[in-house]
Amino acid sequence: MRITFLFILLMLFFGCKKTVNTKPFQPRFVVEGWIENGDYPVVKLTHNLPVDAVIDSAQLEEVVIRWAKIEVHTDDESEILTLVRDDDIFPHYIYKGTQIKGKAGKHYRLVITYAGNIITAETTVPEVPSIDSVWFTGIADDEFQLNITFKDNGDTKDYYRFFSKQDSAKLFSTTTPGGFSDQSFNGKRVSFQLFRNRYSNVSKYANAYYFRGDTVNVKLSKMDSASFAYWQTIDREISSIPFLSKGTLNSSNISEPATGIWYGLASDVYTSSIK
Question: pTM for the full model?
Answer without folding.
Answer: 0.84
